[in-house]
Backbone:
């Protein structure tokens, strides 16, 4: 579903990604962990071209990410959930969810609303469809954001620390939604500090350090038996 | 009613005539604000464009009209443009020139207001829009501009008030606005004090009405329960 080869990314002179090779299969849940500043967000953002890449190749669902037209095609297929939700504050929860299907996928309002209501129900917000974001809690906002991304019927979902901005008591409700998605077979790339989630839901764990994939494998193995000293050091700090 | 040599009664007597002038003042303000908003939006987006030429031209326009006196701009367009044009312009060219000068001037200031309004919107909004597959245009149209609009209402209101006052410069090219009408009556009657007091009061009434309108709009926008 996703193939990344020899991806390099500079910010000015700073090399943030130093030759990433990565594959994500259909229905696979890949969890990316690593220290702050190691390049996790940058990698994720390269996958839907929110960042320009310096060199290397990215192919998603058979489409190479090279021309402007392809970028728009890929963004339609790749949903993204941000740490800070980024809901549109001037729209209700439902409006947030149904806008893009209408103007990007050209669905009728009725079709979009049907999808929107179904998804908001699915994330447990059937009673909040007409609320504006500022009247929702962080966890509720993030669930709307997930529904918004899903409304485009994406083939891949990217999560960049979707629970890091939440109060502890709200983390669970968002993780639960993500877990359900994974069970339904969504292809997911998840950057997170939630190691419990990584272990339970992840099919594969990737550890990034200073822009390089240092170690990868099934989460249980990497957690219990990290081979690389840098992985060991990182895990000993957080587990 | 004459006190000393100052004829205060004249202020009231000339009110109907001055009112005609005030109407012209308002017309020029409305026209220049209307075209100024359109120009402002175009050049604000132009100035933020990735295309270097569009960006440069937009910046040049904005800097020129913000960095030179409005009076000079009026003269350039009223006296200068006819020199470029091979045919004779209509007798009432001063109205066209006045409206163009005011609109261009208003557009430059409005462009900067729009630009700072747009840039005040969290970059995450545009990223969320783009990540959903919206084009740059769609993200502006549906996400950024509706939010920026609220931010720009107060500075936009100030710009309109400034426009209303600055339109008095049109009197110099014989457009019969409030200022010009006052000047004519004062010249004929030698009663500058009462006449220009009346003119001042009428400008004040208009700017205050406008600022009340702006406050009202601002309140309505912040009350509507949407972020
Ligand atoms: N727009 C940018 N311009 C310049 N440098 C940037 C930019 N975005 C990120 N960086 C730098 O790139 C490096 C990697 O950043 P990135 O956000 O990918 O890290 P991260 O692994 O997601 O960290 P965190 O866990 O804190 O989110 C950091 O050194 C950061 O300062
Ligand atoms: Mg990050």
Residues:
């Amino acid at each position: 579903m996703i193939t990344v080869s020899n991806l390099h990314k500079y910010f000015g002179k700073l090399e943030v990604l130093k030759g990433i090779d990565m594959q994500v299969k259909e229905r696979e849940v890949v969890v990316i962990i690593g220290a702050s500043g190691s390049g996790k967000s940058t990698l994720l953002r390269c996958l839907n071209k929110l960042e320009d890449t310096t060199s290397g190749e990215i192919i998603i669902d058979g489409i190479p990410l090279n021309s402007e037209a392809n970028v728009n095609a890929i963004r339609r297929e790749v949903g993204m959930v941000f740490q800070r939700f980024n809901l549109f504050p001037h729209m209700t929860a439902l409006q947030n969810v149904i806008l893009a299907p209408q103007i990007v996928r050209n669905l009728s309002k009725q079709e979009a609303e049907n999808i929107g209501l179904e998804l908001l129900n699915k994330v447990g917000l059937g009673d909040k469809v007409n609320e504006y974001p500022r009247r929702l809690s962080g966890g509720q906002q993030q669930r709307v954001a997930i529904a918004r991304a899903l409304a485009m019927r994406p083939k891949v979902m990217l999560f960049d620390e979707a629970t890091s901005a939440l109060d502890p008591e709200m983390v669970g409700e968002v993780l639960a939604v993500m877990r359900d998605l994974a069970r339904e077979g969504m292809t997911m790339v998840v950057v997170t500090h939630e190691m419990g989630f990584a272990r339970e839901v992840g099919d594969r764990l990737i550890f990034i350090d200073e822009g390089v994939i240092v170690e990868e494998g099934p989460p249980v193995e990497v957690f219990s038996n990290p081979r690389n000293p840098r992985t060991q050091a990182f895990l000993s700090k957080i587990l | 009613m004459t006190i000393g040599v100052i004829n205060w009664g004249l202020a009231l007597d000339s009110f109907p005539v001055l009112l005609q002038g005030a109407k012209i003042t308002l017309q020029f303000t409305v026209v220049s604000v209307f075209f100024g908003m359109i120009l402002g939006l175009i050049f604000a987006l132009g100035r933020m464009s990735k295309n270097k030429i569009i960006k440069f031209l937009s910046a040049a326009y904005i800097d020129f009209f913000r960095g030179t006196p409005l009076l000079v701009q009026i003269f350039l367009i009223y006296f200068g443009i006819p020199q470029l044009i091979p045919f004779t312009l209509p007798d009432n060219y001063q109205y066209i020139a006045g409206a163009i000068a005011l609109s261009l001037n208003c557009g430059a200031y409005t462009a900067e207001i729009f630009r700072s309004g747009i840039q005040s919107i969290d970059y995450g909004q545009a990223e969320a829009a783009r990540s959903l597959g919206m084009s740059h245009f769609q993200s502006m149209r549906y996400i950024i501009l509706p939010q920026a609009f609220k931010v720009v209402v107060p500075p936009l209101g100030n710009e309109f008030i400034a426009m209303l006052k600055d339109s008095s410069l049109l009197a110099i090219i014989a457009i019969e606005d409030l200022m010009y009408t006052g000047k004519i009556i004062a010249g004929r009657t030698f009663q500058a004090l009462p006449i220009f007091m009346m003119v001042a009061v009428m400008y004040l009434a208009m700017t205050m009405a406008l600022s009340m309108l702006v406050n009202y709009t601002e309140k309505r926008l912040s009350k509507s329960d949407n972020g």
Summary: The beta strands of chain A are 2-11, 14-24, 29-33, 55-60, 63-64, 78-81, 156-160, 187-191, 204-209, 212-217.
